[in-house]
Amino acid sequence: MVEKLSEGIGRKFIWAEISFLALWWSSDATDKDKAIFTNLVKSGKIEIVTGGWVMNDEANSHWLAIIKQLTTGHQWLIDNIGYVPKNAWSIDPFGYSSSQPYLLKLAGLENSVIQRVHYRVKKELASNKQLEFHWRQLWDGIGKTDMFTHMMPFYSYDVPHSCGPDPAICCQFDFKRLPGNGVTCPWGKAPRKIFEKNVEERARTILDQWRKKAQLYRTNVLMFPLGDDFRYDRANEWDNQYQNYEILIDFINNNDAWNAEVQFGTLEDYFKAVHAEVKASDFPVLSGDFFTYADRNQHYWSGYYTSRPFYKNMDRVLLAYVRAAEIISSQATSSGAVSQMMSLQLRDRVEQARRALALFQHHDGVTGTSRDEVREDYAKKMLTAIKYSQSAIQQAAYYLLNQPLIVDQAQDDIYFDVDDIWRVHDEIPTRITIALDVVSPSRRIVLYNALAFKRHEIFTVLVSSPHVEVFDPEGNPMMAQISPVVTGDKRLAFAANKYQLSFPVTLDPLALTVYTVSLRDSTRLNKYTSYSHVRVYNADYWTVDLPKMFPIEQPAARLMEDITVQAGNSTRVVATMDGLIKAIVSPQGATMPVHMDFSQYDSQRGKDNNSGAYLFIPTGPATDYKASAFPEIVVTEGIYKATMYAALNSPKAADIILAVSIVGK
């Protein structure tokens, strides 16, 4: 790129995703390469479009994660090139959220290009020359949030579907597909090298496609993107594309009778020309989003809303960790609680975690649509990022609490155990069971509130003994609830030597709060500890082996009526005999009916109609999930927390372990 753009006259290029640019910059680029690239950007021969770390998904990504990936890319550009993008390029996400242009507008971007919109929506907009519009937020009555948007009109963003309405003709002008380059045109007509004898015929042919495409827009300015996936990675492609188009451009521009002027350009060049020709008020205003995307037939791209849900959840966990790590690290640094060296270590770990989060916002990352080896790479990066964030949080917390300095400290020193253990990238994390015994009879629990408001919550940890008591930050004993831990994947059971300890906590904004859990004498009365009431249904064959302080009901008869679940005097949940929620009753007696069930779809298995990571194409309407009668149900009720567990089993479908918790005040 740095070599080929300097050849010829008027060559230009756009670059979107900063993660790849940063990788080249740090691993392969020489100082000379960096200087040439920077000059190409500042001279306008290269335009950085959007400037995000990736081209993010817009359906699954959290708005805060979108902002983080955008600011991560923009910060890199400012630090390394001194550049701020003005135009957005989002051609591959599978549908578009109205939140994206709003965030881009706030980031200072002025125009955008989108592509993957339902084909019937495109057809409607094209028929009215409305493919360019002001994208406005629904609440905006004056246009303050308007993002000028160009929608590509055809099936794809590749060359065959970009120069005009006939892909068989357009493909002949993708010179990457010249014979011998390993890529062909599926319509049977290969591109031909442009030379003096065929330039007029070839120029007439492509100009005809351009004129037809131009009829779909309101201006005489036309954009023809010349690229595709996995392109411009070989020198001969740069030569084939630019050299052949340079001949076509020279011929067209020197033929005044054709009344056309062609040039290589960037988005900035295109939008500048559009706005110079037609005033802004002549373009329509559109509000709303572009979901759900379909590219043809009934191929609705909603499968990716739920593909690989484990990693979608991992993404949200990482987002929370990165945000907390950013805030507490900055607090530790600004307060002088850590040394300059530690401050730099915290900064670097948080930055690496932020970049991993940003990377996963890619439209083939959080969507769950990447190849398996790519999915594994994403997952391992997120696992490392979670551990980096946890490390930064616990080390910053240690020094903010004015703990003693650690001699010869290392980055991987453990200051506090974080109660969220991620061992491998493809397993559900586990929680710590706080072991209390005569050797270690007391443990401190440090809670960090990363939010900017005070929180009052019921907090739950796992402990090894039911004989415990809790002390508040001032050292006063406080009420707490002990409940048995219910486990199982198909059948329910009580975990041995493991209990839930629940108690109310009050956390000031952006602050650390310390509570203490201590082992107590089991023979001594304790008015501050309350034990859950336990009910076991449809499991008279169980031998319930719980400490005697837990009141237990275990009816021998099968459950034939509704049951209620309540924590203290809080909201009651009414459940059916099958363990499904039927109603919610407020403390004041107001009843809200609820219908809860599970449904399942079967997917089509046709030659061209397969459901998968991208598409959701069921064989028909959903069918009810039929679980076996009389499921095992366990209810634990206490002063602060109540939970109903139900083991829904179906030999012909899935096994579902349902847990519904109610938390009191």
UniProtKB/TrEMBL annotation:
The UniProt entry's coiled-coil ranges are none
Q: Provide this UniProt record's keywords sorted from A to Z.
A: Glycosidase, Hydrolase, Metal-binding, Zinc
Q: Give the family this protein belongs to, as stated in its UniProt record.
A: Belongs to the glycosyl hydrolase 38 family.
Enzyme Commission designation: 3.2.1.114
The cofactors named for this UniProt entry are:
Zn(2+)
- Catalysed reactions, as listed in the record: N(4)-{beta-D-GlcNAc-(1->2)-alpha-D-Man-(1->3)-[alpha-D-Man-(1->3)-[alpha-D-Man-(1->6)]-alpha-D-Man-(1->6)]-beta-D-Man-(1->4)-beta-D-GlcNAc-(1->4)-beta-D-GlcNAc}-L-asparaginyl-[protein] + 2 H2O = 2 alpha-D-mannopyranose + an N(4)-{beta-D-GlcNAc-(1->2)-alpha-D-Man-(1->3)-[alpha-D-Man-(1->6)]-beta-D-Man-(1->4)-beta-D-GlcNAc-(1->4)-beta-D-GlcNAc}-L-asparaginyl-[protein]
Q: Which GO terms describe its biological process?
A: mannose metabolic process; N-glycan processing
Q: How does it assemble?
A: Homodimer; disulfide-linked.
Q: What does this protein do?
A: Catalyzes the first committed step in the biosynthesis of complex N-glycans. It controls conversion of high mannose to complex N-glycans; the final hydrolytic step in the N-glycan maturation pathway.
Q: Which Pfam families match?
A: Alpha-mann_mid (PF09261), Glyco_hydro_38N (PF01074)
Q: Name one GO molecular function term.
A: mannosyl-oligosaccharide 1,3-1,6-alpha-mannosidase activity
Protein's UniProt keywords contain Electron transport: no
Signal sequence interval, chain numbering: none
* Organism lineage string: Eukaryota, Metazoa, Ecdysozoa, Arthropoda, Hexapoda
Protein name, UniProt field: mannosyl-oligosaccharide 1,3-1,6-alpha-mannosidase
Record-linked InterPro entries: Gal_mutarotase_sf_dom, Glyco_hydro/deAcase_b/a-brl, Glyco_hydro_38_cen, Glyco_hydro_38_cen_sf, Glyco_hydro_38_N, Glyco_hydro_38_N_sf, Glyco_hydro_57/38_cen_sf, Glyco_hydro_b
Can you supply one Gene Ontology CC term for this chain's record?
Golgi membrane
Domain Glycoside hydrolase family 38 central positions: 299-382
SUPFAM superfamilies the record matches: Families 57/38 glycoside transferase middle domain, Galactose mutarotase-like, Glycoside hydrolase/deacetylase
